[in-house]
C-alpha cells in the first residue's frame, strides 16, 4: 500500500483541478466580457496542473489498480491512461483559446469558447469524482490489503 501522503498529494492535485474548473466556469459565465487577468492566470495554470495530476495518477492510483486481482480495474486503468492524452490536448486547446481571447484575436466565437470551457470543466469534474471514488476502493489498512 502506498503511503497516505502520496494519496493526499493526489487529492490536493484533484482539488486544484476542481478549483480551476470553478474559475473556468466563472470565465464562461462572463463571456464575451471575461476578466483578462483571470483568463491568463487560469490558462497558465491549467496545462501544468493537468500534467502534474497525470503524473501523480500514474504513480499513486495506477499501481493501486494494477495490484488488484479484478480485471475490470485493470481495464479502468487502461482507459484512464488513454484519457490522459485527450485531457492534455483539451487543456492545451482551452489555454490557447483563453490566451487568444485576451490578446483580442480569438480563433473561436465567444459562444464556441464558452462551449469549449464548459465541455472541459464538466468532463474534468466528472473525471476527478470518478478517480476519487476509485481511491476510496482502497481504504488504508495496516495489513496492506487491497481490493481483490
Tell me what you see in this structure.
- This protein is mainly alpha-helical and about 150 residues long.
- The chain has a single domain, classed as Four Helix Bundle (Hemerythrin (Met), subunit A) (Up-down Bundle), CATH 1.20.120.
- Helices cover about 80% and strands about 0% of the residues.
- It has four helices and no strands.
- The protein has helices at about 5-30, 35-65, 70-100, 110-135.
- Helix 1 (about 5-30) packs antiparallel against helix 4 (about 110-135) and helix 2 runs antiparallel to helix 3 (about 70-100).
- It is elongated and about 55 Å long.
Structural class: mainly alpha
Characterize the overall form: elongated
Measured between the Cα atoms of the first and last residue, the distance is: 13 Å
CATH topology: Four Helix Bundle (Hemerythrin (Met), subunit A)
Determine Rg (CA atoms, Å).
17 Å
- Proportion of residues in extended strands: under 5%
* Integer average pLDDT: 91
How many strand elements? 0
Low-confidence stretches: 142-147
Organism: Devosia psychrophila
Protein name: Hemerythrin HHE cation binding domain-containing protein
Pfam family, one: Hemerythrin
InterPro entries: Hemerythrin-like (IPR012312)
Write the layout of secondary structure elements.
Blueprint: H1 4-30, H2 36-66, H3 71-102, H4 110-136
Task: Name some characteristics of this structure.
disordered C terminus; mainly alpha; Hemerythrin-like; 4 helices; 148 residues; single chain; Hemerythrin HHE cation binding domain-containing protein; 79% helix; Four Helix Bundle (Hemerythrin (Met), subunit A); elongated
Amino acid at each position: 500500500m502506498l503511503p497516505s501522503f502520496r494519496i493526499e498529494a493526489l487529492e490536493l492535485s484533484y482539488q486544484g483541478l476542481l478549483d480551476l474548473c470553478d474559475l473556468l466556469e466563472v470565465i464562461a459565465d462572463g463571456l464575451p466580457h471575461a476578466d483578462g487577468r483571470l483568463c491568463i492566470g487560469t490558462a497558465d495554470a491549467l496545462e501544468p496542473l493537468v500534467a502534474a495530476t497525470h503524473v501523480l495518477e500514474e504513480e499513486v492510483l495506477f499501481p493501486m489498480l494494477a495490484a488488484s486481482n479484478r480485471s475490470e480495474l485493470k481495464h479502468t486503468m487502461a482507459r484512464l491512461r488513454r484519457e490522459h492524452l485527450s485531457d492534455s490536448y483539451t487543456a492545451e486547446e482551452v489555454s490557447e483559446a483563453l490566451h487568444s481571447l485576451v490578446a483580442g484575436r480569438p480563433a473561436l466565437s465567444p459562444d464556441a469558447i464558452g462551449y469549449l470551457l464548459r465541455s472541459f470543466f464538466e468532463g474534468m469534474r466528472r473525471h476527478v469524482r470518478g478517480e476519487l471514488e476509485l481511491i476510496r476502493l482502497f481504504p488504508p489498512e495496516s495489513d496492506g490489503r487491497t481490493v481483490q
